[in-house]
Structures are given as C-alpha cells and as structure tokens.
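User: Could you check the structure of this?
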Amino acid sequence: METQNLRLIPCDSEILQSAIAGNGSLAQKLGIIVPDDWTEFGIDALQYAQKKLAANTDEKGWWTYFPILKKQNKLIGSGGYKGKPTSEGIVELGYEIAPAYRNRGFASEMANGLIENAFQDERVKLIVAHTLGEENPSTKVLKKCGFEKIEVIDDPDDGLLWKWALKK
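Assistant: Sure, the predicted structure tokens are below.
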C-alpha cells in the first residue's frame, strides 16, 4: 500500500520475527534503513502481533504495518490494526511515528492509508481508536482523519482515555 510519501508494508510472521530479532535483521529482511528510535511501542507489541498471526491465518493484514519513508527508504514508525474486524464490523487503529519525523503530517498520512485500506473490506463498518484523555498530537491526527470522540473511559491501568470512531 502506498501513500504520497509512504510505503506501508503489511507485516507477516517472518517480517515480525525479523523486527523482534533486531534492527539489523529487519533492515536486511526488508532492504531498508532502520533507525534505533523507530518504535516506542517496543518488542512486546510485535511479539503479540506475531503470535496472533501465527495462530490465525485469517488475521493476515489485520495487525502491524511498517511505514517506510519512500525518499529515504527508511522505517519511521509502525501502525495497523488490533486484529481482524469483529462480528459487528469494527476494527481498532493504532499508529506511531519516530520522534525525528513527527509534526510533518506522516501520522495523518499513515492513518488515512490504513483507514482507506480497512474500508476496502466490506466487513468493516466502523474504525475506532483510543488516545490519552487530553488534547495531544494523536487527537489532532484523528480529528484530521474525520474521527469523532465518542466516549471517555477511566481505565484502571492507563487512566483517562478517549475513544474515537469513524463510520464508513
């Protein structure tokens, strides 16, 4: 999948295993530049997605995507979905951009690419996302992409969260 500035690579189990093994392994696997600070989500999120993909082939395309900045052939974050659409047609979106590439519109570009991709699946009726319960760069991205805040959640682990939704 491509956007104006990004190539969004869907991760299969092999790509995720390379990412888990380390930046050098991932760079070699994909033929890209992998900076040290490309993710704040960390290895745990990659391992979780890898286990889900290994257990269920129907989850393919519904987990991690790597945004590659085309001009530099460089990994600048991660994003994707938290699993395949539910029986109600809902998918959850998540994303991150490496600090050096923030405030340049790449998060919005990646989110819009993932939104378009999800809505191409006839099962998807609604995309949701969660942010911290305060105005921040992620809330700006979601607003730019057409999401509306639909719920305030007091999570026992994460504190105040806002739930966002975008209908097809």
